[in-house]
Design goal:
By secondary structure, this protein is of the alpha+beta class. It has helices spanning about 1-20, 105-120, 125-130, 140, 145-155, 160-175, 210-215; strands at about 45, 50-55, 60-65, 70-75, 85, 95, 100-105, 135, 160, 180-190, 190-200, 205-210, 235-240.
Length: about 240
C-alpha cells in the first residue's frame, strides 16, 4: 500500500514536470490602425498660394475673380504671376503682378502686345518695325494723343513721327520697360519742327529712342536707337513744357 502511494506520487510529479508552462496573463489591449484624413479644400487657396479650389474641391483654371481681384490660372491650375503681358487667348491679354493680380490690357495695349510678339519679343526689332512705318503726315493725327497715335499706326501701318514714336512707346511699355512718350520740337535749319520720340530709363540712365530719325537718317549711318541727349550725330531735342 505504501508502495502504491509512492508510485502514485512519482507519476504525478512526472506529469506536472512535463506540462507546458502557462504564459503570464497580460491586460488585453486593442491597437487601432493608423489613419490619415485629408481635408478637401473648397473655395479657398492652397497653403502655398499657388492654386485655388472651387466649390467642388477642384483646381481652378482660366480667369477667376476672387474677392475684388482677378487672377489667371494655367491649364494645370497653377497661378500665373509676374508677367508684363500674358496672352489668355487671341484677343485677350493681361498684365499680371508678382502677387498674381491681373489687369486686362486695353485695346491699344493688346495691339502692342500682339505686334511685340510678332517682333520676337525683341525691343530692337520692335523699334525697327515702328521706324519702318510708311510715313504719312496727317495734321489731324498729330493733334491727337499717344493712345490714338499708336492705335492708328498698329491698325493702318502708316503715320508720321507721332505715330512712329507712339507705337514703339506702347510696345516698350507692354514689354515692361520704364518708357515715356515725349512730344516737343527738334532743331531744323534755323528753326524748330514739331516732333515726338520715346525715353526709356535703364539703370537710372535716360536714353532716347527716335524711330522717325532712324527712318530718315538710318541709311546714312545714323541711329535713333538708345542714344543720349546731346550725343554727336543726333538731333537737338526740346520737350514741351
Amino acid at each position: 500500500m505504501k508502495m502504491n502511494k509512492k508510485i502514485t506520487a512519482m507519476i504525478l510529479s512526472a506529469v506536472i514536470a512535463a506540462a507546458p508552462v502557462a504564459a503570464p496573463v497580460m491586460e488585453a489591449q486593442t491597437v487601432a490602425a493608423a489613419t490619415t484624413t485629408t481635408k478637401t479644400l473648397k473655395n479657398t487657396w492652397s497653403k502655398d498660394g499657388r492654386y485655388y479650389y472651387d466649390q467642388n474641391g477642384r483646381k481652378v483654371t482660366g480667369v477667376k475673380k476672387i474677392g475684388r481681384y482677378t487672377y489667371v490660372f494655367a491649364k494645370n491650375g497653377r497661378l500665373v504671376t509676374n508677367r508684363p503681358y500674358y496672352r489668355y487667348n487671341s484677343r485677350i491679354y493681361y498684365k499680371i503682378a508678382r502677387n498674381g493680380r491681373a489687369t486686362r490690357l486695353s485695346t491699344v495695349e493688346t495691339l502692342a502686345a500682339i505686334r511685340y510678339q510678332r517682333c520676337g519679343n525683341n525691343l530692337k526689332k520692335a523699334f525697327n518695325w515702328s521706324s519702318s512705318l510708311r510715313y504719312v503726315a496727317n495734321y489731324r493725327v498729330a493733334r491727337k494723343n499717344a493712345t490714338y497715335y499708336a492705335q492708328y499706326g498698329f491698325q493702318r501701318g502708316c503715320g508720321d513721327c507721332y505715330v512712329q514714336a507712339a507705337t514703339f512707346y506702347q510696345m516698350a511699355k507692354v514689354a515692361g520697360y520704364n518708357a515715356k512718350y515725349v512730344s516737343g520740337y527738334v532743331a531744323k535749319g534755323k528753326g524748330k519742327a514739331p516732333h515726338a520720340w520715346v525715353e526709356i530709363k535703364i539703370r537710372n540712365r535716360t536714353y532716347v529712342y527716335d524711330p522717325n530719325f532712324q527712318s530718315e537718317y538710318g541709311k546714312k549711318g545714323y541711329t535713333g536707337y538708345q542714344i543720349r541727349y546731346g550725343q554727336k550725330g543726333t538731333l537737338k531735342y526740346y520737350k514741351n513744357k
